[in-house]
Amino acid sequence: MKILFVHQNFPGQYRHLAIHLAAVPGNQVVAITQRRDMQLPGVKNIVYKPQREVTPQMHHYLRKTEADVLNAQSVARAALGLKRSGFVPDIMLGHNGWGEILYLKDVFPQTPLLGYFEFFYRFSGADVGFDPGEALTFDTAPRIRTKNLGNLLGLDAADAGQCPTLWQKSTYPERYHPMLRVIHEGIDTDLALPDAKARLTLPALGIDLAAGDEVVTYVARNLEPYRGFPSFMRSLPAILERRPNAHVLIVGGDDVSYGARLPKGQSYRQLLRDELGDTLDLRRVHFLGKVPYPVFLKILQISRVHVYLTYPFVLSWSMLEAMAAGCLLVASRTAPVEEVIRDGENGLLVDFFKPVEIAERVVTALEDRTLFTALRENARRTIIEKYDLKTICLPQQLAMIEEVTNAGRTV
What we know:
By secondary structure, the protein is of the alpha/beta class. It has helices at about 15-20, 65-85, 105, 140-145, 150-155, 165-170, 230-240, 270-275, 295-300, 315-325, 335-340, 355-365, 375-385, 390-410; strands spanning about 1-5, 30-35, 45, 90-95, 115, 160-165, 180, 200, 205-210, 215-220, 245-255, 285-290, 305-310, 330, 350. It contains 14 helices and 15 strands. Helix 8 (about 270-275) links the parallel strand 11 and strand 12 (about 285-290).
């Protein structure tokens, strides 16, 4: 079988699936990507680059659309090169978020295309307008509507689509729901698992902590409002004052993945540190930046309380991995989180905008580790039963590929 993956940050959501498919004897797996620093065993990478930058004077509604088209053109040219070399895929899988899949069917019209659809932009009911302090104008609605041009073109191009959660599927117009399957990419629960003997030692930062210590953890790709970083930081002075032995481990970079950026050269980390000043005991608050995956897992395994906050937006892998590792989650009462966490059963839910409530829940959890043992166990059980890579998600993905491929052969 010949399989073509398309993802600018490959492997992204396709890591486990691509590794599995590449290991099957007789399969040929190719990935079209912008990354030069990632090579999976058995996968041939074709690296592309857009022909130019977005036009500086482009109407601001259309900047994302032009970026999508530039990506799609370059991916199509790479696909044409594959076709000339004799590679015609049996199935194509691609993330729609950057427009890359838009013209694949123009190159391989007989090959089924399975798109990964992560989020449909909404003027209400999702991230836009969630923060009551966000300034909305009439311009906001048409800008958001236009931002979905790539989404709509991708839906039209694909034969079927995959969404990772029910809530994320719900953001798409109902007319497209019949073509969208809800299948998460999966959590490897053999790697993300509890370890009562776990220890994290980082001599350069003066860190030597073990499972059982009073450790509060927070993880995000970048430290930014969409992932509740300001609310989390504002909860820390009260936590540190009431729990003098507590340490806080914060993982994440200083860039911005989602939402508005600060003026050049500023980060939300520094902004919040400046705001909190001396109320923040920096001897016990440790900013770790971005860490290797094994270190990330150790951080989860020594965590007494893991805080996860998010806008109504794409659900992070890190929340599910924290649950698989047996963490006690203090998480935001927002739609994507509530799909997974039930308050008082497998985690604790709080108001995203209330640092006082976040602090209260964290302090209660730190006071008595055994009180929440059942919640920790239920958190891991939730992931094993609904999101386990090997027993649930990978088999579902393989079945979807077989179904879409077989349907394509009957055309």
